[in-house]
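Ticket #528: bound-state structure for guanosine-5',3'-tetraphosphate.
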Amino acid sequence: MDLRQEIQKRRTFGIISHPDAGKTTLTEKLLLYGGAIQEAGAVKSNKIKKGATSDFMEIERQRGISVATSVLAFNYRSKKINILDTPGHKDFAEDTFRTLTAVDSVIVVIDVAKGVEEQTEKLVEVCRMRKIPIIVFINKLDREGKDAFDLLDEVEQKLGLKVSPLSFPIGMGYDFKGIYNLWEQNVKIFKGENKQKIAETITHNSLADAGLAESIGDAALAELKESLELIEGVYPPFDQQAYLEGNLQPVFFGSALNNFGVQELLDCFVDIAPPPLAKYSDKRTVAPDESAFSGFVFKIHANMDPNHRDRLAFIKIVSGTFKRNTPYLHVRNKKKLKFSSPNAFFAEKKEVVDVSFPGDIIGLHDTGNFKIGDTLSSGEEIHYKGIPSFSPEHFRFINNADPMKAKQLNKGIDQLMDEGVAQLFTLNLNGRKVIGTVGALQFEVIQYRLEHEYSAKCTFENLNVHKACWVSTETEENDNYQDFLKVKQKFLAQDKQGQLVFLADSAFSLQMTQQKYPEITFHFTSEF
Ligand code: G4P
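RESOLUTION: The complex was predicted; output attached.
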């Protein structure tokens, strides 16, 4: 098979949802269809259980599971499907944002009873901004929930999407009878209660099919016909190009737990979802079928074994063929590196592979060379963009609690920051170190991991910062900027890349500063 055929075979996507909407259950059912696992319950949920926020063992356990489920690959209808796992917990939202830079499309899972929830809104906004193709799956139709049309409205309003239903439920909750599949133009009626196996379906190829009224009843049939007329009148017909450009989002209904509507979703996904796409770098757009290899690090996972501080860097291959034991350029370090045991992922296993292709994710063992966003290439000095740091929301000074272990502490902080656990800012005035995180849970993770993996102890001290903004100006010589540097000296820091950051102590002071210094642009992400 040549490179182009390998690329055409691959579908790399992420499933996003608010916790509990059914992401893990859906993932598992997709793997069942792909024959990658034999029974339900095999995929471990990587969510942090409610109330477990200060349980370190729970965090550690989760880290173990999440490395196993970081990438789940399976084959289905001659396609190689890679599902990238995204943590649902809001304190790890930044991990999810970064993972979204490595997917070519997403499936959004929504709970029929809860509708669009907060976390879904945030994640979909990121996808929308990047024009990532989105399929919506409305889950738990076996339960009573909101009216299907009301939900479609809610998806449009709250998520800012333009929907085109490709399946529609017949009944809901106790009366949930099946799915009208607009994509394949048929009706699937569900039979059987067994939740562990793929449900039986009867296919009706037309609404006039004599058996249909018999299986669902006259009333349900009349309602279905009415709904279909309404869909035709109100929603745009599905247009694959519009979907691929991020301008139209197909919607499916079903129940992941009961396997209802999941195969319909998967079959359509395989037909319409994009293969690996070209990606922008700082110099040019790189097409996947270019022969020279390139890829970027979107996630780093520290090893579970504290005695061996090696880590697994997850690389999304953008172009060309990645080969084992071949030297590649680590662009930021300007160093050639080769890898004797790159891992590929299949279902829940990882194994050493000789070659990988665009769309694939490989795990490279790393002793501290990589940080998130790094590019690896056959030799060309390009940097893939689009993995920004977001302005953190929680800030604390970090202090060394064991003077004998200063070196270990610094190394630990350095590596944890490279992994993307949190961000480090160094105050210009006195060199004090400030840790900024997206969620409060990260402080506990940092303290725990510093102690267990680096034998270093730290304490945190509160710091009144509302937001960190990266600052830029057209010319550094202008008086406005120079005045800002002088007046705001106390609030200035450098991030780990040496970029200047303004730590605003309140929303009000940020606003005042923005007004007073019109020559300066204040950015809320590190890439601008
Ligand atoms: P998440 O990864 O998005 O957080 O959700 P997960 O799949 O873990 O599902 C959350 C809960 O919703 C689970 O129940 C799961 O069984 C249930 N669920 C998922 N899909 C459906 C569905 O189609 N119908 C119904 N009725 N329930 C569904 P749990 O009680 O929290 O966990 P468990 O004890 O069943 O594992």
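RESOLUTION NOTES: The radius of gyration is 25 Å.
TICKET STATUS: resolved
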